[in-house]
């Protein structure tokens, strides 16, 4: 399947934003070694796509809430059909269908952004100043804007260059290899860190899953993806890394807002859960809660102020036993002085 429609769409968005910054008066010339009009165009490409995908992001949060609420039923099915994997899968699919929960919805926003990522990768790779004028005008690029984007820099490093660029590629762009490697290396590390924080924020707010498959997916998202970027990041053009970092920062802010708007089950019912919380020492059937409580300590596990606890009073111990004589509360008190007759 051809990705040309995606290349055209990404190019169109970039060109529209660049034309807007040009009309506002953002200069095309380098300021502090940076062509800010093109950097802002990449930044607002992220904003445009995230606004479009926002309804899908909300559905992702709601789907994760539904999956979290189903964990007790999933655990019960696992105990019931232990050793019968085929029946367990059928029962779980029926449970998801009945409850209208989709385990794949949690990954949908990421899957939708993959074609955009590869589309931007291709468009930036295409920004070669040595190709013919006919090829420069592919995907709707005017010649002047193509030439401007082909030589766009971030702190004296071309946005189409990458950590692994060859000496010939850097020479064609008129770039210094050391500058490109330093800037690209820093951006890749930032990309890894923000990717890790994005996944960690979600897990801290929703809690670790009890289902082994869901738990494996959570661990893969938390550790596997950031680590893979250490190797693959060397192949990404600087412009793509800018897109990824901007997308992660946008996701962190968006998740924080959505998690406040649609808090996890434990946070939404905190008052009711506190009232129904078992007394200290009470054994819970099964040994532990089917759904682990969400942590509310933020990205870096900042501890919340503990809630004040009131002493538990045993009202049954204070009640009189059946058949016991009532106790006169006034007995033993000093009698009042009788009036003299």
Radius of gyration: 31 Å
Query: Can you give the helix content as a percent range?
Result: 55-70%
What overall form do the CA principal axes indicate?
Answer: elongated
Tally of helical segments = 14
Distance between the termini: 116 Å
Averaged pLDDT, please?
76
> Could you tell me the number of beta strands?
2
Largest beta sheet: what is the strand line-up? Answer: 1-2
Question: H/E order of the elements?
Answer: HHHHHHHEEHHHHHHH
Structural class: mainly alpha
Major pleated sheet? 2 strands, antiparallel
Strand content: under 5%
Low-pLDDT sequence parts: 267-308, 312-316
Report on the architecture of this protein.
- This protein has a two-stranded antiparallel sheet with strand order 1-2.
- By secondary structure, it is an all-alpha fold.
- The protein is elongated.
- The chain is built from 14 helices and 2 strands.
